[in-house]
Amino acid sequence: MAPTVSVILPVYNQEPYLAETIESVLGQSFTDFELLILDDGSKDGSADIIRRYAATDARIHAFFEPNAGRCEATNKLLAKAVGTWCALLDADDVMLPERLARQVAFHEANPEVDASSCHCYYINHKGNTLGTQRYPFIKNVAECRRVAATGEFVQCAMTGLMVSRAVFEKTGGLRSKFWPCDDFEIFNRLIAEGYILVIIQEALMKYRIHESAITVRNPFHTFDMIGYTMHCLNSRRKLQPEITFEEFMRIRQAEPWLTRFNRKRFNYSQIFFRNAGFSIMSKNYLNFLWQASTATALSPGYMLTKVRNLARA
């Protein structure tokens, strides 16, 4: 019989964390799963770790291919999956022992829900817990339908996503043109196409933050890509064709200088706010104070909104 859950694990150069990630899957209280791992052309020892674990557990199915990027690697694994549900996972993150059990039980109790995510604990490169990543919205079906009706954008934890395999296949999977915002695009595409996504309001994952992430190394490209993704999502809602990223950037560069200045100011505020959050989680209070003060000076409105959201969480 096919397993209930297919755990989807694309891997690229995650040797320091991969064994812990795989162990967290094998240690789940819910055991009716297959673990599909694709090494996406890693240049470190990731492939050797995968081979070692695949030799010890028949639930692990390992694949090794040249580098094609996270989106393509994920889609390839989804094409091989046979479970009713697909649980996505990043190769440097950690499942809490009850993650699969809690999400499967949630979907069994809520059959109209096509996909779910969760809160996550932030951890650093050593695995120390720093705080909690919360998403205090789309908590139920009614909220998801309201978001679909109003055209609001949502974000949740990709590493905590469980989605119906049939639904994921119908939507066409991840789209590499939106990387590294492919997660943001698929969440909002699911909702726009009439599927129900709900965020379970508890932490089921440990999400690792470190300086090698592209959102940390190149935040302004990420901001541009978020803008492009939102532009394409809006175009679809208006039944208009999508433009390329290059065309989108030419439009942005032709905007008045004040518009570009204010966007850059807002982006810097986002960066300082994020860094302030990491500082307070690391108990570096002096650094937190100047980062938070700078974020507030750059964009008081943004800071007020973030503080209100944190208070609601």
From TrEMBL:
Domain of life, per lineage: Bacteria
Domain Glycosyltransferase 2-like per the UniProt entry, residue ranges: 6-133
Gene3D superfamilies, alphabetized: Spore Coat Polysaccharide Biosynthesis Protein SpsA, Chain A
Keyword Phosphoprotein in annotation: no
InterPro entries: Glyco_trans_2-like, Nucleotide-diphossugar_trans
Keyword field: Transferase
Signal peptide start-end: none
One Pfam family this sequence matches: Glycos_transf_2
GO molecular function, one term: hexosyltransferase activity
Name of the protein in question: Glycosyltransferase
Lineage: Bacteria, Pseudomonadati, Bacteroidota, Cytophagia, Cytophagales
